[in-house]
Fold this sequence. Notes:
The chain is 57% helix and 9% strand.
Amino acid sequence: xxxxxxxxxxxxxxxxxxxxxxxxxxxxxxxxxxxxxxxxxxxxxxxxxxxxxxxxxxxxxxxxxxxxxxxxxxxxxxxxxxxxxxxxxxxxxxxxxxxxxxxxxxxxxxxxxxxxxxxxxxxxxxxxxxxxxxxxxxxxxxxxxxxxxxxxxxxxxxxxxxxxxxxxxxxxxxxxxxxxxxxxxxxxxxxxxxxxxxxxxxxxxxxxxxxxxxxxxxxxxxxxxxxxxxxxxxxxxxxxxxxxxxxxxxxxxxxxxxxxxxxxxxxxxxxxxxxxxxxxxxxxxxxxxxxxxxxxxxxxxxxxxxxxxxxxxxxxxxxxxxxxxxxxxxxxxxxxxxxxxxxxxxxxxxxxxxxxxxxxxxxxxxxxxxxxxxxxxxxxxxxxxxxxxxxxxxxxxxxxxxxxxxxxxxxxxxxxxxxxxxxxxxxxxxxxxxxxxxxxxxxxxxxxxxxxxxxxxxxxxxxxxxxxxxxxxxxxxxxxxxxxxxxxxxxxxxxxxxxxxxxxxxxxxxxxxxxxxxxxxxxxxxxxxxxxxxxxxxxxxxxxxxxxxxxxx
Length: 553
């Protein structure tokens, strides 16, 4: 018994590791259980921690704070690093149209929480936790707890409020999506089964029949339009050729064009006649399209290429090949001349075998060199994130400065390094699996500590009258704003249902609801919209929750 007491009860670094590991393992296993088709995933670690804390399991307070802080920082920084490469490009394209309703949802939910707090006489310090739980936003909770402690206020109420509201926060978003679909979306408005082909990159073939471009070079045509496209192959008089920028188009040429789905119709007006063949099927064997050229994916592994524009390599003119698509973090990008390459990019190269072999030596294609993530950039980024999070910002009317804190600073630096690091020739690449591991490890550690700390008073609180009030308040803060903003986005902004669900899930920081949306809606619009609005809303919630506490407590 003494041996077990040392492992599980007596406070020590060994006991802390054993307890947190056990809570995490049980929570992850339990998170795979589905309730009515919904699984909570890693979030179940939070509730296992609550149960453990309720039965008196504790770890030393400084160890608990360290593990909780480190887990949170690791999670939000890895998240920022992952979404960074596509963040600003999404903002430039359709991002603002997606972000407007997400910000509206954030402000509506916050205003509703404040109103309920005053009407029902709930303290703002408690309501801050209810709001974070209702929006399933643990980084915002961390910011709220930090602010309360900085003001000398007990932060236990915020953690309890979050724990009570969190489960219905997950379910509430899914319930709202189901209601919107059944009451406000027609069957014809839902994405069709083939929508999985309509991604960022769309492949289409045209027959040159427009007399206005006969004899013009590809470069001249590209400069005369704002549409973005890459011509992968040209079939001229029965022979396939790699199109150089000075290639002149002739009547009857068949062009294989890579563009964006929304620009295919405009390009049809430029080139002429669009062919019926679907080039976006995953079953196409590109090496059997013609006998003269092959298509191969080449991985960028040479550090010297990191941060360089595609046009600066002059691969097409020097080696007679063409680069049609770039795969980055699971997303297809159009291979435009101004695209900045990063380590880990996979380039689809079209040309003759010997030329592709030479290009392979330029780009690297050494898979083993990327198996080891660059941990230097990870730790440097965390340090920079903590520095940024510690910078105080003053607002009129607030005596205490506002800080981005452990949640806000690292995610902002992660986004910036993920976006601009390669342009400064920083090696920021981590494989998708490595990034997911960092995120899962950090979030699991944070949730285990948060639950363990909240468990002492959780069941006592839920059995009191205010416990039921907090549960109802949390569900209303989740469900009502999501439904209102969803209706507005569908009917007034005319957004498609897939994008609306992604906006709602991203605004509420709810990956479980996103998983439900991905399983029930065709296409990748939910995931794209989620990735676009999530970092913005995460940042705003971290700031706004601090402002609410400082103004109203």
